[in-house]
Amino acid sequence: MNLDARIASDLIVADDVKILAAPLAMKQGPASSAPQAVVHTANPAPATAAPDKAPFWNGVSGHLVLALKKVVYGQFEVNDIAGDLKIGPDALALDQLRAVLGSGGEARLAGAVNFAGDAPEPYSLKANVAVSEVDSAPLFRALDPSKPPTVEGKFTLSGQVTSSGMNADDLGQQAQGDMSLTSKGGIFRGLAKNTGTNVIAKGLGFAGNEMAAVGQLTTALQEFHYDQINMQLTRDQSLDVQLKDFSVISQGLRIVGTGTLTYEKGKPLLDQSLAMQIQLGARDEFATLFDAIRKLSSETDELGYTKVSDPIKITGTPAHPDTSDLYIFLAKGVGQRAIEHYIPQILNLFGK
Question: Most CB contacts within 10 A, which of 77, 164, 229, 271?
Answer without folding.
Answer: 229
